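I'm stuck. Please check this protein.
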Amino acid sequence: MDMVVTFPGGVRVDAQFGQHTIRTDQPQRGGGEDSAPAPFSLFLASIATCAGIYVLGFCKQRELPTDGIRLVQRIEIDPRTGLVGQIAIDIQVPPGFPEKYHEALIRAAGQCAVKKHLEHPPTFEVRTMVQA
C-alpha cells in the first residue's frame, strides 16, 4: 500500500492512502496550530486502538457486552534516552464482566498487529527521488 504525504501549510503534514486522509499538526509550543494530533500521538493511538480492536473482537465473538470496557494506555519515558521505555495498557472492565475472561482479554490485546511489528521492527529505507 502506498501512502502519499503532503504539506498543506504551516507545520501540518497529511498522509493519504486509499480513500482516507490522516491529518497531523504540531502543538502550538511546537510551532503548529494544534489543529490535529501530532504524528507521534497517532503512533501511540495506533497501539491502543489496535489492542482495542482485538479486545472488541474477542467480546463480539463471545457475545459479551462491551459497554463499560475501556483501555487506558500509559507511557513511561526512559530518562536516559528521552524515548518511550515502556507502554502499559490497562483493560478496564465493569464490575459485572465475567472474571473468567480477564486473562483472555489480555491475550487478545497482545495479538495487536502494531505491537507485533514493534516487537519485530521492519527495516527502513529512506531516499530522495526526482519526480518524473
In short: The radius of gyration is 18 Å. DSSP finds three helices and five strands in the chain. The chain has two domains: 1-37, 39-132.
